[in-house]
Design goal:
The complex is a heterodimer of chains A (about 60) and B (about 725).
Chain A: E1 2-4, E2 7-9, H1 17-24, E3 32-35, E4 38-41, E5 55-59
Chain B: E1 5-13, E2 26-31, E3 36-41, H1 44-50, H2 54-64, E4 78-81, E5 97-102, E6 109-114, H3 118-124, E7 129-133, E8 140-145, E9 150-157, H4 163-175, E10 182-186, H5 189-193, E11 199-205, E12 210-216, H6 221-227, E13 230-236, H7 250-267, H8 274-277, H9 282-288, H10 310-316, E14 335-339, E15 351-354, H11 358-364, H12 373-386, H13 390-405, H14 411-414, H15 424-436, H16 439-444, H17 448-459, H18 463-469, E16 472-473, E17 476-477, H19 487-494, H20 508-513, H21 520-540, H22 545-548, H23 565-579, H24 585-605, H25 626-631, H26 633-643, H27 653-679, H28 689-695, H29 700-708
Parallel strand pairs in B: 2-7, 8-13
Antiparallel strand pairs in B: 1-9, 2-3, 4-5, 4-7, 5-6, 8-9, 10-11, 10-13, 11-12, 14-15, 16-17
Helix pairs in contact in B: 1-2, 2-24, 7-23, 11-13, 12-15, 19-21, 19-27, 21-24, 21-27
The chains are: A alpha+beta (about 60), B alpha+beta (about 725).
Chain lengths: ~60, ~725
Amino acid sequence: MITVSGSNFPWREGMTVADLLKEIDDSQPCAVVRINDTYVSQMNFENTVIPDDSEVFLIPMIAGG
Amino acid sequence: MPDFKLKEAKTLEYDRPAIEKGYTDQTLYVNISDSEITIKPVDAKTKETFIGGKGYDLWLLWNAVQPKTKWNDPENEICIAAGPLGGTPTYPGSGKSIVTTLSPTTATVIDSNVGGYFGPYIKFSGFDALEIQGKTAKDAVIFIDGIDQKIKIFETTGLPNNAYQLSAILTEHFAAGKPRSISVVSAGPGAKNTLIGCLNFTWYDVKRKRARYKQAGRGGIGTVFADKGIKALVVRWDTVTADTNNPADKAALKNVAKLHSREIVELDPKQNEMARIGTTHLVTIMNDHDLLPTHNFRYGQHREASNIGQQVYRRLFDPGFDGCWMGCTVACSHGVKDFVPLTGPYKGKKVFVDGPEYETVAGCGSNLGIFDPHTVVEINFYCDAYGLDTISVGTAIAFAMECFELGLITETHTGALSLNFGNRLSALELVHQMAKGEGFGQIVGQGVRKMKEIFAKDFGADPKIMRDIGMEAKGLEFSEYMTKESLAQQGGYGLALKGPQHDEAWLIFLDMVHNFMPTFEQKAEALHWFPMFRTWFGLCGLCKLPWNDIIPEDNKDTPEPAKVMKHVQWYADYFSAVTGRKATPDDLIEMSEKVYNFQRIFNLRMGFGRREQDAIPYRAVGPVTEDEYVSREERYDNQLAQIHKVDINGKSTAEKIAILRNFREQQYEKLKDAVYKRRGWTSDGIPSLDTVKRLGIDFEEVLDLLNAHGVSS
């Protein structure tokens, strides 16, 4: 089990960030996620595997800066 | 503690007015040439037109200077104001001071937005704004005592130059046992000996029992302060509550403040963790997206970037509450405890360092080819202690390093300093030299624009290449984002009133990553709305971080998610609740439009503010050197072939650079056209007569100025 922005989500072996984003079907554009203390950008979504028990957060990068 | 003396030169006793709906309706004028202290009323028209904060500053400055006034003339002023919402302890990010002056590097108006307690305390002491004019040779301290209702000008001797020591001493001296009641503004020796000085504003950290610092960094405001002979400003105020601003509708304020504050407490840990790591999360994110400036903005990525990323600062920052204003739940002003510098006057001693933020990490780290977090912290520390702007210091040293690597300058010019990228000790040595006004650091401390002139005139360096790689516009050094692949952000920097600072518009992700604005018209719309809304924070005394760095979970379901309209509505409600002046989100934009256009006209009055001044160096637009092109060859080749339909077969890299440059420079000019049209400006970038009339800023002087520039219908 992992959490995504605080809510429980089922984990499976080999699940990547790209897999997760497809499954949660969030329409908000997401270019960055945080897995525990590590930030992962969109170009690495396909090859970043989410460990079990992770806390995953979808980081809104809109017009901050 | 040094043996110092404060000799009273002038004292004015006054009756502090009650705060009425966020306003005192008077401003404080101090002329340090002749120790004049005057209290001026604010009339209704000024209040309605300029709102407060930066708006008030600009109006006071406009009335104080002439078109030919230089930054170091006595009539130049430093204006500091909070704004009507400033000082609200229940609404996150409500403690900003806005500072304006004529800049030594841009020669026109500069404004800087800074945390700390000074602005709110000045207002609660009875003044919507403070304007300081004149010059003195006697090291002045101006003390505004809102509790005892006295304003004093002291002549001082024996006070230290270093901002940290100075603020600590003055906090203790004036606090009467309550250090939280004091806020100090000071500069430092670097501010005096360069043109890129900053101001340090303090807030008292009760838990750590020390004065903490935030900086009004951009454009050399600290240099003006030091040139005037001001050692420090000190304000003293009492307890602050939600009622201190005497809001028009206490219940409505309580409600909207609670909504926003609670949301941040709930969502910040799930999003950017600003209360834990500040803005350092941006380092690796920018690096991933080829947006982190490295080696004087040549590239946007480096394999060692994670060495100066959030995971390192997560460990270095001292945990605890770090709000630069009371009650702020963003609380992002982190610091490093027990840091031991390797160089300079604090070598080997434990110090507390306020920072670094993203801009300092990128400017004094990656952009110098330095990927050692301790060096970044040490440069941060000394810049603050010396009163130097870390952004301008970083961008200026980066330019000098590239000139050195290109052979445009040599060790003969640098005083034997080797200025290759990544040379940590040389970077630190330059900072120390800036503070002393000695050596090559004295030249770097003049900023990029003057360095280009000096290198060409005195060292025989090629002005053409320096024009392309010197990262300044309007005389201000770029802040720390790459813009080559975001036309909208090129406009965000190039069309910004004061020069290339990202506080008007940060559109890189919307434009480059999310592709939300593919057309010129969409980019122009963004370059209208975002600068206007961001300007509004400066009118009211607010920080913009709570607006769009923590996003509501239902934001994606709103009609305009990029604008975070739920929060914009909250801000309209907040303004209405405090001032009693009912406002909608559109009203906030119109408030800003008045001030924004007035500032553009102010630039025009000072000899700037036209299309030609909105130019940016080509390094901000595309690859200048063959190395840059080749490093992203596939990207650039594809753009030439697929977007611009160029047959690149058989073309040399130099030819491809020239063709790409032609396209990109044309695009930037087209963007200017679109933005000027959207803002209601002429094709030369001057607000039209219709625009100034619509906004109610058609004062006689404004109309005369427009007429003199051919804008009469």
